[in-house]
């Protein structure tokens, strides 16, 4: 086997010409002769390193994924007597970089997590690494929405069911790693959102689950029995897709201003829906739309199936088209009256019902996405050499990292506390006691992500504004971190809600 052959450094040094060009990276010998003309950075830069150890130069310019992609083709052996020094992360692995994972996963104690959570993370991470990341990277680049095959794979694996969280709606559902539906709790769900954010493709991740996570709860909380029997299995198996359609060109946070109307047909059997919706995540490829409309009795929620008169167009956003963000027009769309969700005129209650859960899920994602950026910065600061030193040897860079780490750790710990409260409280109690804390946590999460993005940009320099290469995740994070600060309630609304909720319980206290 050529890949297992051992060489001395002296032997490698003799292969320093264009007709035989070898290089060493870590303890591995690569024959890059045939690759010279294919190398995106040009042949000359590799020729400068021909026959030499190119480890530092390679890692100054490339992500490890490039090496892994080509290693099978180019690797011819290893250096005799030398063991690998650089860690190669495999599918499902937990990172060993400090603060790259919440501390429990790196061996600390926790009162929150148990073996079931641990096992759940292992199977999820492996699935994300092996099944989702390869398609995510290509789709993000090409601007493609997730394939129907991937949805089906996720459905079969139980990932779509895990994305909507614990509850009676999971009865009979298959969950990842054989987790029993009655054993699933909010920590499992937190892990699911974290693993999705960890892949570093926020447009694609939202393409896979954002519509479902907010579009299906109105069905299982307010839909008729018949509707639930049909829609839940279709959607959780990945055969059909659903999203939530509330916001309009006329109404964002001010839901009460929506203009889309639903009028009863003369025979009373259908609602006839007319209007528009904007910023609807996943709308481009969805089959079902949990939609807010205006009827004579007020705001009402309807389940609308893609049908004649319903058109979806992609909206170009600052993240990738993989999220399927859409503008929707309804022109005389006929919706059976049985498709009502809850009662006529009580749509606001349906909309509000899942808000805390949605905001909490956004917190899980934002924290994990920020943590990924901390990991990137920590690695980069250790490998990048400038002015004869590593970046990490500069106090100003250590100060930036300290600030990022301290903030991410603080919000992680607050999140875990809130998740724990959710596992202990009824839904009613959660709505009363946690709406304020979740709103404030979301505010804090997006403030931290803003700071993390800014500091990461300074640490990565020009690479942070380059879509491919070393700083690709930083560039992507800068474009997308504002989503969390707007979706599910803007920072301003979160701040106000948090304090107003606290005022509800304010005692008659004086200074
Ligand atoms: C197994 C060996 C190598 C492989 C598989 C490889 C692969 C690649 C790939 C895929 C890119 C494009 C990266 C991107 O757009 O993000 C690239 C760029 C580049 N490579 Fe390599 N490379 C190898 C060795 C080297 C060596 C030894 C050098 C010289 C020290 C080098 C210098 C460069 C440079 C200067 C660029 C352009 C970087 C930039 O745009 O900032 N490469 N290489």
UniProtKB/TrEMBL annotation:
<keyword id="KW-0349">Heme</keyword>
<keyword id="KW-0274">FAD</keyword>
<dbReference type="InterPro" id="IPR006091">
    <property type="entry name" value="Acyl-CoA_Oxase/DH_mid-dom"/>
</dbReference>
<dbReference type="InterPro" id="IPR009100">
    <property type="entry name" value="AcylCoA_DH/oxidase_NM_dom_sf"/>
</dbReference>
<dbReference type="InterPro" id="IPR009075">
    <property type="entry name" value="AcylCo_DH/oxidase_C"/>
</dbReference>
<dbReference type="Pfam" id="PF00441">
    <property type="entry name" value="Acyl-CoA_dh_1"/>
</dbReference>
<dbReference type="InterPro" id="IPR013786">
    <property type="entry name" value="AcylCoA_DH/ox_N"/>
</dbReference>
<dbReference type="GO" id="GO:0050660">
    <property type="term" value="F:flavin adenine dinucleotide binding"/>
</dbReference>
<feature type="domain" description="Cytochrome b5 heme-binding">
    <location>
        <begin position="4"/>
        <end position="80"/>
    </location>
</feature>
<dbReference type="InterPro" id="IPR036400">
    <property type="entry name" value="Cyt_B5-like_heme/steroid_sf"/>
</dbReference>
<dbReference type="GO" id="GO:0020037">
    <property type="term" value="F:heme binding"/>
</dbReference>
<dbReference type="Pfam" id="PF02770">
    <property type="entry name" value="Acyl-CoA_dh_M"/>
</dbReference>
<dbReference type="InterPro" id="IPR001199">
    <property type="entry name" value="Cyt_B5-like_heme/steroid-bd"/>
</dbReference>
<keyword id="KW-0560">Oxidoreductase</keyword>
<keyword id="KW-0285">Flavoprotein</keyword>
<dbReference type="GO" id="GO:0033539">
    <property type="term" value="P:fatty acid beta-oxidation using acyl-CoA dehydrogenase"/>
</dbReference>
<dbReference type="InterPro" id="IPR046373">
    <property type="entry name" value="Acyl-CoA_Oxase/DH_mid-dom_sf"/>
</dbReference>
<protein>
    <recommendedName>
        <fullName>Cytochrome b5 heme-binding domain-containing protein</fullName>
    </recommendedName>
</protein>
<comment type="similarity">
    <text>Belongs to the acyl-CoA dehydrogenase family.</text>
</comment>
<dbReference type="Pfam" id="PF00173">
    <property type="entry name" value="Cyt-b5"/>
</dbReference>
<dbReference type="GO" id="GO:0003995">
    <property type="term" value="F:acyl-CoA dehydrogenase activity"/>
</dbReference>
<dbReference type="InterPro" id="IPR018506">
    <property type="entry name" value="Cyt_B5_heme-BS"/>
</dbReference>
<keyword id="KW-0408">Iron</keyword>
<dbReference type="InterPro" id="IPR050741">
    <property type="entry name" value="Acyl-CoA_dehydrogenase"/>
</dbReference>
<dbReference type="InterPro" id="IPR036250">
    <property type="entry name" value="AcylCo_DH-like_C"/>
</dbReference>
<dbReference type="GO" id="GO:0005737">
    <property type="term" value="C:cytoplasm"/>
</dbReference>
<keyword id="KW-0479">Metal-binding</keyword>
<dbReference type="Pfam" id="PF02771">
    <property type="entry name" value="Acyl-CoA_dh_N"/>
</dbReference>
<dbReference type="GO" id="GO:0046872">
    <property type="term" value="F:metal ion binding"/>
</dbReference>
<dbReference type="InterPro" id="IPR037069">
    <property type="entry name" value="AcylCoA_DH/ox_N_sf"/>
</dbReference>
């Amino acid at each position: 086997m050529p890949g297992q052959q051992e060489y001395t450094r002296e032997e490698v040094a003799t292969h320093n010409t264009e007709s035989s060009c070898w290089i060493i990276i870590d303890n591995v010998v690569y024959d890059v002769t045939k690759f010279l003309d294919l190398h995106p950075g040009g042949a000359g830069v590799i020729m400068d390193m021909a026959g030499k150890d190119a480890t530092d130069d390679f890692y100054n310019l490339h992500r490890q994924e490039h090496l892994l992609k080509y290693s099978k083709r180019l690797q011819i052996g290893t250096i005799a007597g030398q063991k690998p020094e650089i860690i190669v992360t495999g599918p499902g692995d937990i990172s060993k970089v400090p603060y790259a994972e919440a501390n429990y996963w790196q061996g600390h104690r926790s009162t929150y997590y148990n073996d079931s959570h641990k096992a759940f993370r292992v199977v999820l991470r492996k699935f994300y690494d092996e099944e989702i990341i390869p398609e995510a990277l290509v789709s993000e680049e090409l601007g493609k929405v997730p394939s129907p095959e991937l949805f089906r794979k996720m459905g079969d694996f139980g990932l779509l069911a895990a994305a909507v969280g614990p509850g009676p709606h999971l009865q009979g559902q298959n969950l990842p790693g054989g987790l029993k539906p009655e054993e699933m709790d909010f920590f499992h769900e937190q892990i699911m959102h974290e693993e999705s954010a960890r892949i570093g493709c926020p447009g694609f991740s939202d393409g896979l689950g954002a519509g479902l996570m907010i579009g299906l709860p109105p069905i299982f909380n307010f839909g008729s029995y018949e509707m639930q029997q049909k829609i839940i299995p279709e959607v959780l198996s990945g055969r059909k897709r659903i999203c939530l359609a509330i916001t309009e060109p006329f109404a964002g946070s001010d839901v009460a201003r929506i203009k889309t109307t639903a009028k009863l047909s003369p025979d009373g059997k259908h609602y006839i829906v007319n209007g528009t919706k904007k910023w609807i995540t996943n709308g481009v490829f969805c089959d079902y739309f949990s939609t807010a409309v205006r009827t004579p009795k007020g705001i009402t929620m309807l389940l609308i199936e893609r049908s004649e008169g319903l058109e979806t167009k992609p909206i170009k956003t600052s993240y990738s088209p993989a999220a399927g963000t859409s503008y929707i027009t309804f022109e005389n769309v006929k919706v059976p009256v049985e498709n009502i969700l809850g009662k006529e005129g009580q749509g606001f209650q349906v909309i509000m019902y899942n808000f805390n859960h949605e905001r909490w899920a956004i917190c899980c994602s934002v924290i994990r996405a920020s943590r990924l950026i901390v990991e990137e910065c920590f690695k980069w600061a250790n490998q990048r050499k400038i002015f004869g030193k590593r970046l990490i040897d500069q106090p100003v860079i250590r100060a930036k990292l300290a600030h990022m780490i301290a903030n991410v750790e603080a919000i992680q710990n607050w999140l875990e506390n809130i998740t724990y409260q959710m596992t202990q409280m009824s839904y009613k109690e959660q709505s009363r006691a946690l709406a304020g804390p979740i709103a404030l946590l979301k505010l804090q999460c997006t403030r931290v992500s803003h700071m993390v993005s800014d500091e990461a940009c300074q640490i990565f320099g020009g690479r942070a504004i380059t879509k491919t290469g070393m700083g690709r995740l930083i560039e992507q994070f800068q474009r997308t971190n504002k989503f969390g600060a707007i979706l599910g309630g803007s920072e301003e609304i979160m701040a106000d809600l948090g304090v107003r909720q606290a005022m509800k319980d304010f005692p008659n206290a004086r200074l």
